[in-house]
Amino acid sequence: xxxxxxxxxxxxxxxxxxxxxxxxxxxxxxxxxxxxxxxxxxxxxxxxxxxxxxxxxxxxxxxxxxxxxxxxxxxxxxxxxxxxxxxxxxxxxxxxxxxxxxxxxxxxxxxxxxxxxxxxxxxxxxxxxxxxxxxxxxxxxxxxxxxxxxxxxxxxxxxxxxxxxxxxxxxxxxxxxxxxxxxxxxxxxxxxxxxxxxxxxxxxxxxxxxxxxxxxxxxxxxxxxxxxxxxxxxxxxxxxxxxxxxxx
DNA sequence: CCTTGTTTAAAACGAT
DNA sequence: ATCGTTTTAAACAAGG
Length: 248
What we know:
The chain is mainly alpha-helical. It has a three-stranded antiparallel sheet with strand order 1-3-2. It has helices at residues 18-28, 36-46, 54-67, 113-134, 139-143, 180-183, 206-218, 225-233, 239-246; strands spanning 33-35, 71-74, 86-89. The protein contains nine helices and three strands; from the N terminus they run αβααββαααααα.
């Protein structure tokens, strides 16, 4: 009756749901986000049960990633080549589990439609940043910038000026060390990849970029600790800089 | 071509 | 029995 320790399930099925296993893997990672293959690896590494029937449970796991709002898909930044995106936990899903035990979940974590739309816009904007700043120099773009099928502008509302005063779930986070200072690293290790002068940047609505940027810390509850880390990784220290670069 | 991701449908399961 | 969740299955698009 000693409760089996983490790794001692042997060939028995561990009592964790796929959501729990995935959360476990993500939390365990240094950056709190992982590509799919690493989530697989985490699970098979410590739960031998999942070394069999991989097609079955991996399909299920992917289903969970897509289906549940508690997981968000963050586009891979181009200086880290690889296959899929990164998967992270939505910050508001932090207390998804009762005491953090991973064995008991609260109610299903479901985003409000509006919040979900915002999130999708954020991520779409991130993807666009990727394409714009890291697109290979394309001579054809100079001739006809209009023909830029690569850039997908989210169909969203213009700036959602009417920011509804947080009708969403008010959940109080104990403490979050998520300061602006932590975002603006004093030392930029590498200069961001500067688009070549001849490369005409496809137009992006500034609101897209700015909202994408500042929402990360003006609205602490909203979205994307991981994404904010991405902005930093791009070497983009301020919204102004982001504007400047995006309008060149 | 295989991995990654999305989506629908239904079975299985557990709590009330 | 009902309700909500979890698991499984399967079809399909997209991208490297």
